[in-house]
Sequence to fold (202 residues):
Amino acid sequence: NSGGTSAFSAPDTGWMNAVHTITATAGAGGSISPAGALKISLWQSKTFTIVPSNGYHIAGVLVDGAAAGAVSSYTFTNVVADRTIAASFVANQAPIIGLAVNPTSGYAPLRVEFDFRGSSDPDGTISRCGVDKTGDGVFEVEGNGAGRITVEYAEPGAFIAHSRVFDSDGAVASTSVTITVLGNGPVADLVAIPDSGDAPLA
Fold:
């Protein structure tokens, strides 16, 4: 106004300095990092890492009470309110070995197929399989997944072959079977009587 004064109020910018809390928790069988009640400024982002302990895997992650899946990390972006994240874990179940061995006996050299395709895992996948063909603790042949492995026995004897499968979390299941390898195969010993004469020879 002409000849007068006017009042001017500065805009309220206090909201720009707001601080919110992200509360991160983990159940038994694993951890979340960082954990606890974390203060975070407005519009900032924060990433959390979820790690299961040995023998466990991630069961699920809840973000603000809603399922986010069995994720190993989660990022809050542009935070404008208090948030929560909670991770839960479950003990790993051992795999189930399903093995077919053929043949289990025969003459040397004997080729034997170990078929692991009947193996399964109740809460994951089969990561690899292996065969210790003589039971000495050395798994001479290993393969990925639940496949087929062929080994050869060059010498005669009775061998206790150990087989095993691992799941994606490192748990193992095993079994054994006896392989009987015989010596040289039978040789025919023929005697012809008579062994000479005029045709037709009878």
